[in-house]
Write a structure and sequence with these properties.
Layout lengths: L5 E4 L24 H10 L3 E7 L1 H4 L5 H17 L6 E5 L15 H10 L6 E5 L2 H10 L2 E5 L4 H7 L6 E3 L2 H13 L7
Parallel strand pairs: 1-2, 1-4, 2-3, 4-5, 5-6
């Protein structure tokens, strides 16, 4: 039996509006096209999970409880749009901690793969920063850079080489749907 395709998504600048060290759940706002794209991915049978660096916790800017509230608010907004997320995997560490879960290290994908039962090389990774693309590349996944958030600037300066570039999650979902329909699966 073939497994459902898995799409791993960055949070800030990909699903929700980028806010420097977001620490207030009331400021969570879905990006235009995000819910539409995620609904499309669900409709074609994809499992969805969020993978996000949240060093604001490690820097003492907000607590794990505040982060839980932020994620709860995001999930609430997505559910109101008909979108369910299978999991949220986050790194609370600072770059100085040199952990294995801070993107682009593979720890978050490994956590998601264990929880959702997929091989890391068989997923799609979508984000707006080089660390998202590099994370996907580190495990052999297919990568999509979205131009939302920091993505347009990342693309214009050539900071990374994703498999695809899309304006937003809505357009990224179309790319994934076309890939799957034409038999192009994530790398084995």
């Amino acid at each position: 039996m073939e497994r459902a395709p898995v799409v791993l998504l960055d949070r800030d600048g990909t699903i929700i509006v980028e806010r420097h060290y977001l620490s207030d759940p009331t400021q969570v706002e879905l990006l235009p096209g995000a819910a539409e794209g995620l609904r499309r991915l669900r409709r074609i049978g994809c499992k969805l999970a969020v993978i996000t660096n949240q060093s604001g916790v490690g820097r003492g800017m907000f607590s794990l409880e505040t982060l839980r509230q932020i994620h709860g608010r995001m999930l609430e907004l997505l559910l109101a749009e008909g979108v369910e997320i299978e999991g949220i995997f986050f790194c609370p560490h600072t770059p100085e901690d040199r952990c294995d879960c801070r993107k682009p290290q593979p720890g978050l994908i490994e956590q998601a793969a264990e929880a959702l039962d997929f091989r890391p090389s068989e997923c799609f990774v979508i984000g707006d920063k080089p660390c998202d693309v590099e994370l996907g590349q580190a495990v052999g996944a297919r990568t999509i850079l979205v131009r939302s958030g920091y993505g347009a600037g990342v693309e214009s300066t050539g900071q990374c080489a994703p498999d695809h570039v899309a304006d937003d999650l809505s357009k990224a979902a179309v790319l994934i749907e076309r890939s799957l329909a034409s038999g192009i699966r994530p790398r084995p």
